[in-house]
Amino acid sequence: MSARQQRQLIEAAFLPHACKCRASPEGLLTIYVCDAVSDAVLLEVSGVSTAALVNWDAIDKFATDLQRNLKGDEQRERSAG
Length: 81
Hints:
globular
């Protein structure tokens, strides 16, 4: 699977949030999940190896884990505010 395909699948997994992936020459991704309206960064993860994201199942598991983190962060913000 190409790095472009990996980025497209990861970005699509976070809809309706905006998700942007940046790849480094070393094969590491930085992932930004942003609010679709304000473009505020809700979650940033860096140093993700593209070598670990070799198929849809690996990407799905990775994205699901990040979504859980994002939902937990959003819930904590609501209860604090």
